[in-house]
Write a structure and sequence with these properties.
This protein is of the alpha/beta class. It is about 25% helix and about 25% strand. The protein folds into two domains: about 20-230, Alanine racemase (TIM Barrel), CATH 3.20.20.10; about 245-370, Lyase, Ornithine Decarboxylase, Chain A, domain 1 (Beta Barrel). It is elongated. The two termini are about 15 Å apart. Bound molecules: pyridoxal-5'-phosphate (PLP).
């Protein structure tokens, strides 16, 4: 980002500017929906739409045609519901805690059933409600995280009555290694899912996350559930990222100074200047989702120059080396880029030793948010 755009900062600007391109989000949705047709494309909007604001992301996706939304918790569904069209379906991936059933039943929220006890609770709720209730049945096909086991699947196949109060919308499972094209776990999980599905001939499959979509049509089932790809993250490690970037992050400069050789920079003096260096201190740190693991590793960018992070990332600030920039290129209030044209979300995540998901969901609320 141009270092001279400080005058664009809104008064509320704190650490910097987080811009979220809703048009790019919609374009990503349409691209995935076209790719998986005739299957339907849902959207995973858990964790406040991966940190980007479910109240803005949800309606934007709905106007791009999305009608199936997955969250992790019932309370997320509760909050999001009023921002979505009446015909949108909301699914709760983690399933319901005991006591959540009546709210979900009364509000048409669809739980993902992950155990036989959740199944019987939801079935009891249906009896109270006086009607069959919609449900998604999740099976654990090899991730050992959540879902009904293969043994539970046999119990259900042999005791159809267990499902009589439920309207099973989808059989679901989640891929553990979908971002790795060649990982044999993908086909093993698909085979396990198909073996279970044989016992439920009328039910449709909901299987693929972002990475799964790019594994091919065999993985699509009837409904796909992308998250990260909608938000511009790379769905797979083996393709150039085909998604449009949605997020840009610029952070403000709060001080510049010249450090003579032999200066110790930051907590613990982890950086020791070898020669005279120009430094800029930025107004964001690990409390703003820029992990401490970027200490002495990552970089910011301005005027196309890479500006390495020197010393440790603090809670509310960090220091970068701006020696390569013209003197006075950066001043109090200038913006430097952390995510944008010069550095992708994946680049930043890699330098931090993590993944795009963790960066996005950690960005927090001290940036001025600009929805485009
Ligand atoms: C988070 C999640 C998704 C979305 O995954 P992405 O990799 O972000 O596309 C899909 N399904 C389940 C069960 C999830 O937990």
């Amino acid at each position: 980002m141009d270092a001279s755009t400080a005058d664009n900062i809104d008064d509320e600007a704190l650490s910097g500017v987080l811009s979220i391109d809703l048009a790019a989000l919609q374009s990503n949705y349409r691209m995935l929906a076209d790719r998986v047709a005739p299957a339907t494309c849902a959207a995973v909007v858990k964790a406040d739409a991966y940190g980007l604001g479910a109240d803005r992301v949800g309606p934007a996706l709905a106007s791009a045609g999305c009608r199936h939304f997955f969250v992790a918790h019932l309370v997320e569904a509760k909050r999001l519901k009023r921002h979505l069209p009446r015909d949108a379906k909301l699914y709760v991936l983690n399933g319901l805690m005991p006591g959540g059933e009546s709210y979900a039943a009364a509000n048409g929220i669809i739980p993902v059933i992950n155990s036989l006890s959740q199944l019987s609770q939801w079935s009891a709720a249906a009896e109270q409600h006086g009607a069959r209730l919609p449900a998604v049945l999740q099976f654990d096909t090899g991730m050992s995280r959540l879902g009904l086991s293969a043994a539970d699947a046999s119990v259900l196949a042999e005791n159809r009555a267990l499902l009589r109060n439920l309207d099973v919308q989808f059989l679901m499972s989640h891929l553990a290694s979908a971002d790795e094209h060649l990982n044999s776990q993908n086909v093993q999980q698909l085979a396990a899912m198909q073996a279970i599905a044989v016992n439920f001939p009328d039910a449709e499959l909901c299987f693929a996350n972002s990475g799964g979509i790019f594994l091919g049509a065999a993985f699509h089932g009837a409904l796909v559930r992308p998250g990260i790809a909608l938000y511009g993250g790379a769905p797979t490690d083996s393709l150039a990222n085909p998604m449009k970037p949605v997020v840009r992050l610029s952070v403000r400069v709060i001080q510049t100074h010249t450090a003579p050789p032999g200066t110790l920079v930051g907590y613990g003096g982890s950086h020791h200047t070898q020669s005279e260096m120009r430094l800029a201190t930025l107004a964001a740190g690990y409390a703003d989702g820029l992990p401490r693991s970027l200490s002495d590793r990552g970089a910011a960018y301005a005027l196309g120059q890479r500006l390495p992070i020197v010393g440790r990332v603090s809670m509310d600030s960090m220091t970068i080396d701006i020696t390569s920039l013209p003197t006075d290129a950066l001043q109090l209030g200038s913006l430097v880029e952390l995510i944008g044209a010069d550095q992708t979300l994946e680049d930043l995540a890699r330098d931090a030793g993590t993944i795009a998901y963790e960066i996005l969901t950690g960005l927090g609320h001290r940036y001025h948010r600009q929805y485009i």
